[in-house]
Design brief:
The structure is a homodimer of 291-residue chains. The first copy, chain A, has 291 residues and is of the alpha/beta class. Helix content of chain A is 35%, strand content 19%.
Chain lengths: 291, 291
C-alpha cells in the first residue's frame, strides 16, 4: 500500500508520522516543539523528512496559514508562526513531491473521508480553538477560492464595531465563536477583564450562573453563524472540531438551525478524527489530488 | 445555431423570448401579467410554449424560488407567487426538455458568461431589489448545495434580534441590504414608520441629511456582507444587480473590502446584463448542462 510522511506544523508543536493511503498510522506520532525562527523550522523539517523520505511516496504537510491552489506555498501570514514563515520553499525539503494544505482544510478533508462527515458530499468543518478554522467541502472537493485562501470564518455578527477581531475587522464570527470569543463574552457578563476561558469552563462546571450564561451566549453565536452558513451553502452537515467543541450541544444547534433555515435541514456533528485530523487529512488529500 | 425558448416567471410579470446559444434574442421580448393562481400560470405557460416549441431545442425557465439539482422542480415556496406554485410539473409543458433554474442563479450565470463577471471563474452576483437574491459561481459552476437551494443571503448582521427578516429569523443580510432594508434603516433614522424606499431616494437626491445617512448606513451594511462573503469564498469578483444597485458606490465598497479582507483582494462591479439577465442566463445554463 502507498504511504506518505504526514507532518502537522502548528504554532506550538510539529507532529509527524507515516500514514498510508487509507489514513492508518504506520508508526508512532512524533512531536517536537515548533522552533522560534523560520530557518530553524526549515532545518527541523529537513531533518524529519530525511529520516523518512526513502520509505514514502510523498511528503504531506498540514500548516497554519492559507495555502495556494497548487498546494505548494503558504500565501497568508499566520500570527502563531515566526515572520517569514510563508517564504519557506517547502519543495526544497525533499526530492519527492511535497504537498501542503491549510490545517483546518486538512482536518475537514479527514472528517469527510473517514470521520463524522463520511458519506456526505457537502460539509463544513469548524475548528473551534483559540480561534476558528474551517474547511468547506462542496461535491467532495475543498472550496479553495481564486487564490486558495477560502474558508475564513470572518463574516460579521454585529454591525456597530462592538468587538475587535484578530483580523483587524470588528465583530467577525471568529471573535464570538472561538475560545477567545467565549472569554470576551464572559468578560462582558462578569464585567471582569481578567477572566480566562479556562476559568469560565471551571465556573460553569460548578453551575456558576454567569459562566453558564456566557456559555449559552457563546453557543447561540455559534448557532447564528451555522444558520447563516447553511443558508448560503445548503450543506449536508457541519462538523465541530477543536479543543472547544466538547462544550457545545450539537443537538440544540441542529434543532435551532433546522427550525430557522431557508434552505433545507442539515446535521451538526461532533468531530471523530481527533487531534491528528490535520495530518491524516493532508495525506488523504495528497493521495486524491496527486493521483 | 441552436436556440431555446427563455421564460422568466416573476411575481408581477412573465417575460419570454427565443434566445440562441450565444445569448442573443431572436425575437422581441414579450411580457404578460403573472396570473393569480397556479392553474392559470400553468395554462399561460402552456400557451406560450405551444406557440414556440417547434422552433426551439428546449424550454428554459427562470423562476423565483429554489430549484432542485436536476433543474426540474421548484422546491421552495416563494412569497410573491400563488400557493401551490411549487407543485407545478413544468415537464408537462412540452414534449421538449423543460429546464428550470432560480432567477437569481440564472442572472448570476448570465453575468458570468457574458456580463460583468465574464472571464472570472469565481463570482458572486447579488441582486438588490425589494429583497436580495444571489448566485454563487465557483470554478465556473453554480453553487447549488445538497438540494439546490444554496445561495440564500440570510446570514446575520446582528446578534440581538433587532430587525425581523422576511424569512422568520432576525437580522439577516437581506433585512439590511435590500430595498426594504434601506426603508427600515430610514424608518429608524427618520423615526417615521411611514417613509418609503422611493421617498428616501428622492430625499437623498435633494441632499436631505437623514436620507443621505440612511443610504450611507445601507451601503455600509452591504459592504460588511460582501467583506464576510469574500473571506468565506475568496472570490474573483462581486456583481451587483437589481433595481437598487444604481444607488451603490461599487468603488467605495471594493476599497473597504480590500482593506479589510483576510483572504485576497476582490472586485466589485455593476451588473451589465440588464433586466433580462435571468432569461438569458437560464438559456445559457441549459445549453451548458444539457449538452
Amino acid at each position: 500500500m502507498k504511504k506518505a510522511l504526514g507532518i502537522d506544523i502548528g504554532g506550538t508543536k510539529i507532529s509527524y508520522a507515516i500514514v498510508d493511503e487509507e489514513g492508518n498510522f504506520l508508526n508512532e506520532v512524533h512531536k517536537i516543539k515548533t522552533p522560534k525562527t523560520k530557518d530553524e523550522i526549515f532545518d527541523t523539517l529537513a531533518c524529519i523528512v530525511s529520516e523518512a523520505e526513502n520509505d514514502v511516496d510523498f511528503i504531506a504537510i498540514a500548516t497554519a496559514g492559507a495555502v495556494n491552489n497548487e498546494n505548494t506555498k503558504v500565501i497568508g501570514s499566520t500570527a502563531n508562526l515566526p515572520s517569514g514563515y510563508k517564504d519557506i520553499d517547502f519543495s526544497l525539503l525533499s526530492n519527492k513531491k511535497v504537498f501542503i494544505e491549510n490545517d483546518a482544510n486538512s482536518a475537514a478533508y479527514a472528517e469527510y473521508k473517514l470521520g463524522a462527515a463520511k458519506g456526505y458530499n457537502n460539509s463544513i468543518t469548524l475548528t473551534l480553538g483559540t480561534g476558528v478554522g474551517s474547511g468547506i467541502i462542496i461535491n467532495g472537493k475543498l472550496l479553495k477560492g481564486k487564490s486558495g485562501a477560502a474558508g475564513e470564518m470572518h463574516f460579521m455578527l454585529e454591525r456597530n464595531e462592538k468587538r475587535l477581531c484578530t483580523c483587524g475587522s470588528y465583530d467577525c464570527f471568529e471573535a464570538y465563536a472561538s475560545g477567545n470569543g467565549l472569554r470576551k463574552t464572559a468578560v462582558e457578563i462578569f464585567n471582569d477583564s481578567s477572566i480566562t476561558t479556562y476559568e469560565v469552563i471551571e465556573k460553569a462546571k460548578n453551575n456558576d450562573k454567569n459562566a453558564l450564561l456566557a456559555l449559552e451566549v457563546w453557543q447561540k453565536d455559534i448557532t447564528l453563524g451555522i444558520l447563516g452558513l447553511n443558508n448560503i451553502f445548503d450543506t449536508d452537515c457541519f462538523v465541530l472540531s477543536g479543543s472547544m467543541e466538547q462544550f457545545v450541544d450539537t443537538k440544540k444547534i441542529e434543532d435551532f438551525v433546522n427550525l430557522k433555515t431557508v434552505t433545507t435541514k442539515t446535521k451538526v456533528f461532533h468531530a471523530k478524527m481527533g487531534n491528528y485530523s490535520g495530518m491524516i487529512g493532508v495525506v488523504l488529500l495528497g493521495f486524491d489530488l496527486l493521483n
